[in-house]
Structure formats: structure tokens, C-alpha cells
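User: Could you write out the 3D structure of this protein bound to FE2/S2 (inorganic) cluster? I've included everything you need below.
Assistant: Certainly. Input first, then the structure.
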Amino acid sequence: MSRRTRGAPAAPGPSRPTVSVCRGCCCGTPKIPGVDHAGQLARLRTSLDGCATVRAVECLDACEHGNVIVVQPSAEGRRAGGRPVWLGLVNDPDALADITTWVQDGGPGAADPPAILELYVFTPSRRVREGLEGGGRG
Ligand code: FES
């Protein structure tokens, strides 16, 4: 059995935030009109290249909030108290820009989100929250 070296990370985890963009049965489809869904995902991937992992995921079981985006903290952000933040009705470019800026600043636990994002935050059920941790399709 080995001893942990002093100063080593307390827990493993991603070194940068993860942005999960729902692209299921409702989010990312014409069921949510007036949104450039492909452009939304492309902008996130381009803007956050090198500072966050952006992935499309299957339905997060919160369709009434579509489009849903979840920002998960980096390992450092989690150690600082950051937790995944679920954002719903992300259907306008301004909200996307605010999310992008926040994640570029470090995301949950590392930077305070712009106050306007409080309008988009929702709390899904525990079952739904726990379902996100293992899901993703790249
Ligand atoms: S399709 Fe996004 S929550 Fe169901």
C-alpha cells in the first residue's frame, strides 16, 4: 500500500470544467424553434477549446427546460466547493455568451457566474443529476 505524497491531489477529476450540451429528443431539435442548435454547440466548442471539455449528451430527462446545458466543475473547482450547475432554456445567444465567459473564467467553484444566469439555473431530481455523471456521446 502506498502513501499519498504530500501536496498530491485529494481526489481525481477532470483538470478543466465539462460542459454537457443536451442533444436528445427535444434539446437541439425543431421542437425548440428559433435556435441555431448546431451553431450553439459549434460556438461552445470553438470558444471553450483548451479551457473546457464540451460534449453532446443524450436526453437528460429535463426536456421541459430545453435546451439544457450542464456545467460541471474542474477537479480544482470541485475542491473549492463547486458543483454541477444545470441551466435550462438556453435558447438565446446572450445566455450562451454568459455561460462561455463564466467557463473561460474557470466555471463552478473557480468563478462566480454572471448574475443573469440565475434566471436559467434549475435543480433537477437527484435521479436525473446522478444520471449525468456517466453519460455522454462526445
Ligand atoms: S432532450 Fe434535453 S432534457 Fe430531454
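Confidence is low (pLDDT under 50) at residues 1-11.
User: Perfect, thank you.
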